[in-house]
Amino acid sequence: MKTGVYVPLITPFKENGEIDYEVLAKATKFVLAKGADGIYSCGGTSEFNLLTTEERKRCLEVIIENAGGKEVIAHVGSQSTAEAVELAKHAEKAGANMLSAVAPYYFGYTFAQIKEYFKKIAYATSLNLMIYNASQARTYSLDELRELLSDEKITAVKYTGYNFYYLERLIDDYPDKKFYTGVDEAFLAGAAVGSDGAIGTTYNYYADKYIEARALFKQGKNKEALEIIHKLNKITECLIARNNNVIAATKYVMSLQGLDILPVSREPFSPLTEADKAAIKAVYDSVKF
């Protein structure tokens, strides 16, 4: 994997709830045209847990077909180890560059069980595995993360959390592994402790601005970088306030930028209201780059 910004691509839906694969192809090109280094397929932003196994496979295929050779990370995490392995094998055959997986949740599995789950995914193919450390699924101790990273097939972490001390310790301990942050609001905090890049929902519409902010920060131009982040977070704050439907709100911003996409998610997400759309558009229009 490269150092940089990867987009966890949204999944576009039609009015009837079916996936709009034609728009997915356009969305792939849309985000990559903004300079993204690659795409993270079928993760949380893609509403993976609301997709069938076959839909996840087809989404990955469409993304790879339209990625123009850019890297594609296939998220294969599942409640079922067997399904995750099936998705991993398909991802390798489809041409993905790397696998990623979130831990199964709900039952409160032991760390030993989670470790075995990751091991079976990692060794199901020749592809390396990125651990998706999302607090919504499981919170790991620092030593648990170290134990997972001791496996040579686990070569990266998507760290979606706010404990940057943990992240800094891991980066220092494992200089040969890659670490990407997943909290958009804390984009520069990850860069400050040495992350290799980031993977975040709002990069679907402003990957270019995050890339610019990261480059300025690396050049020591902190004030200029923060000016960009302040503007980006103004939009992010507005999206977060949208009745727990950041994903549909993200699609709406993409539509404001010219992508022919419906700002809808699958149920049980509720649709955006006209008031939601008006609030988002007002904030979006007020942010000038």
Description:
The chain is an alpha/beta fold and 289 residues long. The chain has one domain: Aldolase class I (TIM Barrel, Alpha-Beta Barrel). 47% of the residues lie in helices and 13% in strands. It contains eleven helices and eight strands. The protein has helices at 21-32, 53-66, 81-94, 111-122, 142-149, 164-173, 187-192, 203-218, 222-240, 246-256, 274-286, and strands at 4-8, 38-41, 71-75, 98-102, 129-134, 154-160, 178-181, 197-199. Strands 1-2-3-4-5-6-7-8 form an eight-stranded parallel β-barrel, surrounded by six helices. Helix 8 (203-218) runs antiparallel to helix 9 (222-240) and helix 9 packs antiparallel against helix 11. The longest helix is centred in the C-terminal third of the chain and has 19 residues, at 222-240. It is globular.
